[in-house]
Specification:
By secondary structure, the chain is an alpha+beta fold. It has three helices and five strands. The structure holds zinc ion (ZN).
């Protein structure tokens, strides 16, 4: 059986199989980009799909400070969609 690589959730810091995570990429010019296909290059930003983690990433003070300005509306809408 092939092992699925794990990544650390940027919010709760748990190691989660990559396939269960949301991946975004931090692009120097374009900010944070949604990367569902794992195809973009750049620094990966991973979040597990837990509601709390997504909510914290969108609304938490710490993440707002670091990523708020970079998050484009496409990403934000997608995150809200996953969060439900
Ligand atoms: Zn998490």
């Amino acid at each position: 059986m092939r092992r699925v690589p794990v990544r650390m959730c940027i919010v709760c810091r748990k190691l989660v199989p990559r396939t269960d995570m949301i991946r975004m990429v931090k692009n120097e010019e374009r900010g944070i980009l949604w990367d569902e296909e794992y195809s973009l290059s750049g620094k990966g930003v991973y979040i597990c799909r837990k509601r709390e983690c997504i909510a914290e990433f969108i609304e938490g003070r710490k993440f707002r400070k670091n990523f708020g300005k970079l998050l484009n509306s496409v990403c934000l809408d997608k995150l809200k969609e996953v969060k439900g």
